[in-house]
Amino acid sequence: MMWTEKYKPKKISDVVDQERAKKSLLYFLSNFKKQRKKAVLLHGPYGVGKTSLVYAIANQFNYEIIELNASHFRDKKKLQSILGEAIKQKSLFAKQKLILFDELEGITKDDRGCLEELLKLIEKTTQPIILVTSNIEDDRLRKLKRKCLLIELEKLSDESIVKLLKEICRKEKIKADEKVLEEIARSCDGDARAAINDLQFLAAGRKEINKEALKALSKREKERTVEDAIKQILEERDALGILQNVNANIDEIFLWLDENIGYFYRGYELEKAYEMLSKADIFKARITRQQHWRFLFYVSFFLTQGVALAKKEKKKVVEIRKPLKALKIWMIKQKQAKRIELAEKIASLMHCSKKTAYKELFFMRFLKF
C-alpha cells in the first residue's frame, strides 16, 4: 500500500500546518447557509494538502463527498448532467453533502462553455462547492475567483515535512538519520506527497535509512534505457522509481514486461506478477477515463515495485527480449492516432469533413510552406 494513502489525514489536526486555511474552510462550511459566496477556491502549490484537507474535514464532520475532476468535463451539458443534479440533492446518509471539484486547471481553453456553466451552478447550489487548483494565476479563472471565497494553502516548510517523515518512520518502525530526512524535505521543495514517496522508496527492503541510502535517490537522476529498467525490475526486489528517468511511454513498459515476465517467473510468482500488471492497467484506465493524473504514481508503483516483489528472491536475467510484434502494432496505432488528430485540426480549419481531411493528408506532405 502506498504510504501517501496509508497516512492520509483522517482529521483536521492530521493535516500539516495550514492553520489559517483550516479555520477559514471550517467557518465557511459551518456557516454555509449565511454565506454570500457559495463556493470556495482552495489554491496552493502541489503536495501541500489541498485535497487532503477537504477529505479530513469530511471524515471528521460526517460530510458526504462527491468528487469530480475538472479534466473530465469538456462541455456544459456533461457538467450540467452530473454536477447539476448533485447540487440539488441532499445526502441520504451523511450530515451534509460536499461537492469537491478537483484539479480545476484541467479545464481546457476549448471547454465549450464548461466554465460559464460552472459559474451558473455555483449561483444555484444548495450544497457547498470546493474547487481546488494549483494555478490560481490562470486567466481563465478570473470570473470564477470573483464568485468564490479564496483560501490559500501555503508552501510547507522543511521543518514541517521532516516532522511528518519522522512520524511515519516511527509508525513503520524504521530508524532514519535526521540528516537524511532533512535532505529529502529540502529536495522536495515543500511537496509533502513527493517527500513521502521518496521516503517509501528509500525504505523499501530496509529497516534503517542512512546517508548511504540517499545514493539510491541520486541514481534516479541518471537516464537509463528501457532494457536496463526492465532488467532491474525482473532481477531485483527493489525497483520503485526506476522509471522516472526512462525515456519510454507507460504503454511501452506494459509491452516490455508482458513480453519478458513469462521467461523468468514461474508458478505463483508469474501469477502475482500479472496481478500487478492488471492493477497497473486498472489505474491507467482510471486516468484515461477520469483524468485523475495523480494515479500515475500507482501505475508506476505496480509496474516496478509490484512486479519486483512478486518474486521470492533476486533473479539472474541474462537477456531482455524486445516485444517486436506487439510493439510494432502499438507504434502503428500511435502513428494512426496522430494522423487522425491532425486530420481533425485540418477539418476544423478548412471547414471540411474529417474523412476528407484524412484523405488529403497524403498529398499535403508534398506541399512546402
Defining key terms:
flat, 4 domains, 5-stranded parallel β-sheet, 9% strand, 369 residues, two-stranded parallel ribbon, Rossmann fold
Task: Give me a quick take on this structure.
With 369 residues, the protein is α/β, with parallel strands linked by helices. It is 54% helix and 9% strand.
Explain how this protein is built.
The chain is of the alpha/beta class. It folds into 4 domains: 3-152, Rossmann fold (3-Layer(aba) Sandwich), CATH 3.40.50; 158-218, Helicase, Ruva Protein, domain 3 (Orthogonal Bundle); 226-310, no CATH class; 324-365, no CATH class. The chain is built from 16 helices and 7 strands. Helix 7 (158-172) packs across helix 8 and helix 11 (226-235) crosses helix 14 (296-308). The relative contact order is 0.09.
Largest sheet: 5 strands, parallel
The name of the CATH topology of the largest domain is: Rossmann fold
| Percent range of helical residues | 40-55%
Measured distance between first and last alpha carbons: 54 Å
| Poorly predicted parts | none
Strand order across the largest sheet = 2-3-4-1-5
Strand content: 5-15%
Order of helices and strands: HHEHEHEHEHEHEHHEHHHHHHH
Using the coordinates above, name the CATH class of the largest domain.
Answer: Alpha Beta
Our count of domains comes out at: 4
Count of helix runs: 16
| Structural class category | alpha/beta
Q: Report the count of strand segments.
A: 7
Radius of gyration, Cα only, in angstroms?
24 Å
In the CATH classification, which architecture of the largest domain applies? 3-Layer(aba) Sandwich
Instruction: Choose one word for the global shape.
Output: flat
Assign the CATH superfamily of the largest domain: P-loop containing nucleotide triphosphate hydrolases
Mean of residue pLDDT values: 81
